[in-house]
């Protein structure tokens, strides 16, 4: 008479707080029954998670197995119990325990402001997207979001922030006052017990008084007598700048030996 048996296969790497696909193969087991899968702590045999699946005579069945969340990677026990046939007279029973390693894999949270620098009185807009360990957007509300100024004071806070359906993005905004503390501000979000942070700058932006552009050739021949270089300085309103320019020019030649020559050039009263 053929012997009864089973094979339960799992992914090699188990991530906490993720549902994986376990595959059960039964051999010479025709009766209906059920199996129970338990995750247990090794040190105390305390059951952290268990689930039961009905087996209706299938020789092969895919079982969605939830791996419990862990704060740090650790070894756990996976126990399988099965009973087939009647309660009083089971035709086949399963009871086995194996050690499995569960990896702690935190969620990934992205905080994206609409820009990096804000002027006093402007509107701060930002989005938050959380990705689950299996790289899918989380559709759960974000537990806590807050904005801190340069002193660490919470100037705004949002609780249980809803996300856009099917996308998982939450959008928030905050109106700056005309005289906010200037410096580095912090956008923080707490997701799945972890706090993520993004920095932004709040300051008065002063336009530069003038800009300097340099136009020069990309390549200069070794026998060139002169090198055409153009320096152009203009104020922000477009007028040319008059003054003295000290420039250091360093042509570099390539061949068997690399040489470099530095020249000091002074230009006065030029536009």
TrEMBL record:
Protein origin, superkingdom: Eukaryota
Domain Macroglobulin span(s) in chain numbering: 109-196, 204-254
Gene3D superfamilies per UniProt: 2.60.40.1930, 2.60.40.1940
One MF annotation (Gene Ontology) recorded for this entry: endopeptidase inhibitor activity
Name of the protein in its database record: Macroglobulin domain-containing protein
